[in-house]
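Hello support,

Our group uses your service weekly, and this is the first time we've seen a run hang past the timeout. The protein is DUF2520 domain-containing protein. I'm not sure whether the cause is the sequence or the server load. Input pasted verbatim:
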Amino acid sequence: MNAPHRPERHSDPRAGHGPDPKDRPARLTVGVVGAGRVGPALAAALQLAGHRPVAVSGVSDSSVKRAAEMLPDVPLVPPAQVLAQADLVLLTVPDDALPGLVEGLAETGAVRPGQLLAHTSGRYGTKILDPALRAGALPLALHPAMTFTGTPVDVQRLAGCSFGVTAPDELRLAAEALVIEMGGEPEWIAEEARPLYHAALALGANHLVTLVAESMELLRGAGVAAPDRMLGPLLGAALDNALRSGDAALTGPVARGDAGTVAAHVAELRKHAPQTVAGYLAMARATADRALAHGLLKPELAEDLLGVLAGPAAAAGGTEGFRDGGADGHDGDADGGDR
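Update from on-call engineer: The timeout came from a worker crash unrelated to the input. Re-ran successfully.
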């Protein structure tokens, strides 16, 4: 099936303009169920595009405070009342809470026929909204591939942010227009590909935070007074190179096959930060596999290196799951924060 026509983007919605009026949805009343970090930011972005937030629900003190800051003068009401007042409802709750929320809203009759119901989970497509679909709702999956702070800066960061979008064919143009109006760039994800899409984002974004935090701790242990200042240029260049060149950007002792250096790393980590050994070995093995496959690591050097990663020292660090040449999968939250 051919991809639908992409509405032409004439200007940045942050400047108060959106796509061509003939391609964008009519002005909508907007409701938010779940005032976590994501929902209020998306509603605020839609407000800049001319839509009107009318209701928001939140339970915790932080949610109430966030809603007041991001959506001033928008009343805080129970979820059912949000649906009663809004043409477009953003369901911005954690992944595990979404199925029960959708079922509950549908069973209680809160869903109205013709109502746009959009969730922001990376994990799910629109099938999770089937109970609401049977009640007449129009289902959308709009996942911003960005980490959120829960502050107004998130609205500006939406400019150019990719959204993983899944929608029925007849709603694709509307879904795409909403994303563009929020400042984002729609990227179509097939329903069956949503779990893989989400895993990919978690692997890159969530694990990056863990790696950076561990690296900063180790640098402090080595006596570096400002590890963030030291890592900033290095990591910025590494990220830019990786995005531009992929595996060709691989550098360092693993990619070079410096088995002695890697062995020294493992020994030092075991002495000073044993909790990081398993992660180091896992990433080193994955790096070696990729470097070898792309001709960056010479086979004669790879043998000694892989011996270090799979030898007794590595085994003590918990690498049993990596000796067969592959790492087990990991679950993770794709957007890096509470919704």
